[in-house]
Design a protein that fits this description.
Length: 126
């Protein structure tokens, strides 16, 4: 059974940093995609970043480019989201999600992902 479990959220001041972790397990294929999404109250779920295992390609949403970095540690089956220069508008529940690799389309679309974690709260506040 494929599972993803995220952790690392918390409260941080504007300009601060946090690192989220996503542990993925149970994949039947070596090729899959791990994505990070977020949802703020009253807003739609937004794609933050994703990474592919087939070629380690990384993708970012426009609102986080240059501030967030996605990476993975194969030995630990873990994907990290390093978030720097955090802003008030980054406050949201952050979800890790997974999908089996098929093609390079829809990688930043929440509806394309089949497996979701429970979410972790990130609050940016002074």
């Amino acid at each position: 059974q494929l599972q993803v479990v995220e952790s690392g959220g918390g409260l941080v001041q504007p300009g601060g940093s946090l690192r989220l972790s996503c542990v993925a397990s149970g994949f039947s294929s070596d090729y899959y995609v791990i994505g990070w999404f977020r949802q703020a109250p009253g807003k739609e779920r937004e794609a933050v970043s994703c990474i592919t295992t087939i070629d380690n390609s990384q993708y970012y949403g426009d609102s986080v480019k240059g501030r967030f970095t996605i990476s993975r540690d194969n030995a630990k089956n873990t994907v990290y989201l390093q978030m720097n220069s955090l802003k008030l508008e980054d406050t949201a529940i952050y979800y890790c999600a997974a999908k089996i690799w098929k093609y390079r389309i829809g990688l930043m679309v929440p509806g394309e992902y089949d497996y979701w974690g429970q979410g972790t709260q990130v609050t940016v506040s002074s």
